[in-house]
Write a structure and sequence with these properties.
Residues 16-160 form the Flavin reductase like domain. Keywords: Oxidoreductase. Pfam families: Flavin_Reduct. The protein is mainly beta and 171 residues long. It has one domain: Roll (Pnp Oxidase, Chain A), CATH 2.30.110. The chain has three helices and twelve strands. It has helices at residues 9-16, 62-69, 82-87, and strands at 21-22, 24-30, 33-39, 43-47, 50-54, 71-76, 101-103, 109-111, 116-128, 131-143, 151-154, 157-160. Strands 3-2-6-9-10-5-4 form a seven-stranded antiparallel sheet. Strand 2 and strand 3 (33-39) form a beta hairpin. It is globular.
Length: 171
Amino acid sequence: MTSPYDISPSSMRAVLGHFATGLAVITAAGPDGPIGFTCQSLTSLSLDPALVSFNPSRNSASWPAIRSVGRFAVNILPAGAEALALRFSRKGVDRFHGVEWRLSAQGSPHLQAAAAWVDCELHTEYDGGDHTIAVGRVNGLATAESGTDPLLFVYGKFAALRQGAWQALSA
């Protein structure tokens, strides 16, 4: 068992790895082509006004470029999109090579394989230690189809909930 006083990065990963998150790819249309990175910190922040937040790393090469564009798309990944999540997390590769995408009406890349899309403009950004807390104002959103199973990340691994294998719990 981890000591309650050990708050090292490895302990943070081990303990918070028990919390399952969804996976998304944040994309923007940069001056030299599309930009994107994998994100597991997406959350719906506010319904009115419609806001989402996520936490890019301070050493991200992609986030400053997306920030300078000022608008972006959140591409929510479905189960089975593990390769896409890995591709957009790698450094030094053309992340969009061989990936099907199209520009949204808002001008941001929508990945064809995504289960849903949320088009945003950067609303504000806050200090978050070794990450930044980015808040996007939602300008549009859509789903690919109903019933798409989500891609999750838990215990440092990919996981999925299959609709036939899970049950909604009531409060």
